[in-house]
Sequence to fold (141 residues):
Amino acid sequence: MTTQFEYVPGEHEAEKASNSYLMSLIAVIAGLPLPIINLIATLIFYLGNRNGTYFVRWHCTQALLSQFSLLFMNSFGFWWTVSIVFGDETVSNPYIAYMMTVFLFNVVEFIATIYTAIATRKGQHVSWWLYGDLTNLICKP
Fold:
């Protein structure tokens, strides 16, 4: 859902807020097989901007929350795959269903991140379902 903040963020604020989403995309390219890389990159950017304006803090927090949930899904899929390749596990229907779900979730999150980075760069406020509400609880003006 795209809305406007009560004030129009400045060019510098919009750029920093947009970069919070781009950080996770860059981390995907750099550390694709390891799910924790995205979270670490987004966390470092969040820590660097946690004292910024409300607009920047809000979007850094939302980006961090989305990466945190992806960490759990991707880590479970990663270690399940490792146990199949190097262990006694076999490919099963639940594994295939889970991996399809994880893939779909990652594609949707990737597209939403690109859209949000572009909209936020224009000064628009994009609140994701679930993450936006959690961000409102965590990040206060």
Notes: The helical segments are 11-30, 36-49, 54-86, 93-121, 131-138. The chain has five helices and two strands. The mean pLDDT is 84.
